[in-house]
Design a protein that fits this description.
Length: 92
């Protein structure tokens, strides 16, 4: 599973990197070395889901698949957003 992170600023929109789920958890794939801190910060903060009555916090290190599946709901702003999860291609 892959989630792409996009950033918009100074008249440009670009992919800042990807978060890839593999057997060891979530692997960072920054577009540039300068993007690594952004991706690391996304993984540090839990995301909140729920219907408003019962909040549910999802942590990237405890539930990586569920975290990526819900990331686009948390990161959907004008300057920073996450794509819907995509199926990862098999690597050889």
């Amino acid at each position: 599973m892959i989630v792409k992170i996009y950033w918009a600023g100074l008249g440009e929109v670009r992919e800042a990197g990807r978060l890839r789920l593999d057997g060891a958890g979530i692997r960072l794939e920054p577009a540039t070395p300068e993007d690594r801190p952004l991706l690391e910060n996304i993984l540090k903060e839990p995301i909140l889901i729920g219907d408003g009555r019962v909040p549910v916090w999802i942590h990237a290190d405890l539930e990586p698949q569920r975290f990526l599946e819900n990331l686009s709901r948390e990161y959907s702003g004008s300057y920073l957003w996450a794509s819907q999860p995509e199926k990862a291609e098999k690597r050889e």
